[in-house]
Write a structure and sequence with these properties.
The complex is a heterodimer of chains A (115) and B (110). Chain A has 115 residues and is mainly beta. Helix content of chain A is 0%, strand content 56%. In chain A, the strands form 2 sheets. In chain A, strands 2, 4, 5, 6, 9, 10 and 11 form a 7-stranded mixed sheet that branches. Chain A has a 4-stranded antiparallel sheet with strand order 1-3-8-7, with no helix packed on it. Helices cover 0% and strands 55% of the residues of chain B. In chain B, 35% of the residues are buried. The chains are: A mainly beta (115), B mainly beta (110). At the A-B interface, β5, β9 and β10 of A face β4 and β5 of B.
Chain lengths: 115, 110
């Protein structure tokens, strides 16, 4: 299985809502990532989990809260978002390799619209 | 200076021709380089990775790495309309981070 899955595919939420994005992989990868991508821009790294522990937080606002319940699952909890947070949210996974030979595989993404 | 530079203007190539994409990077210590293809509205798909100087071929794709000159390139031979997409160059930084270039749109004209 060489797939990263994400749910939901699309999400529309109001600024007062709380919602969660989910990501799952069964490739045995021990690093998982959340990226945000705006139109015509490259993906921007938000968080990295390595061996289920948060290893990188790229100064993301606290209205985004990541969670890694186990080695296959990654969640992103959303609360009090702003319209400028509307974007494609991408999950990725990779091996953890000290030599940096860590090809990252992306899921299909969740298209988020904040009203 | 940005970490990874790609000339971002669209590249139009006739069907059957070779598309050539270039990427330069600033960190001489970089060891791993990746090319992702992204169709409009879809997620990035890894198509090539290269770690050693020289060429690496996979089907119609060839990645070339020159660490002395700090560039990596992607050649697409026999370009097809299905190759029309944005191609993202990225380098690994050794800490599970990828530094992406802005991307290069390729349009293959039938």
């Amino acid at each position: 299985d060489t797939e990263v899955t994400q749910t939901p595919k699309h999400l529309v939420m109001g600024m007062t809502n709380k919602k969660s994005l989910k990501c799952e992989q069964h490739m045995g990868h021990r690093a998982m990532y959340w990226y945000k991508q705006k139109a015509k821009k490259p993906p921007e790294l938000m968080f990295v989990y390595s061996y289920e522990k948060l290893s990188i937080n790229e100064s993301v606002p606290s209205r985004f809260s990541p969670e890694c319940p186990n080695s296959s699952l990654l969640n992103l909890h959303l609360h009090a978002l702003q319209p400028e947070d509307s974007a494609l949210y991408l999950c990725a996974s990779s091996q953890v390799d000290i030599l940096a030979y860590n090809e990252q595989f992306f899921g299909p993404g969740t298209r988020l619209t904040v009203l | 200076q940005k970490e990874v530079e790609q000339n971002s203007g669209p590249l139009s190539v006739p069907e059957g021709a070779i598309a050539s994409l270039n990427c330069t990077y600033s960190d001489r210590g970089s060891q791993s380089f990746f090319w992702y293809r992204q169709y409009s509205g879809k997620s990035p798909e890894l198509i090539m990775f290269i770690y050693s100087n020289g060429d690496k071929e996979d089907g119609r794709f060839t990645a070339q790495l020159n660490k002395a000159s700090q560039y990596v390139s992607l050649l697409i031979r026999d370009s097809q309309p299905s190759d029309s997409a944005t191609y993202l160059c990225a380098r690994g930084d050794g800490n599970n981070r990828l530094a992406f270039g802005k991307g290069n749109q390729v349009v293959v004209i039938p």
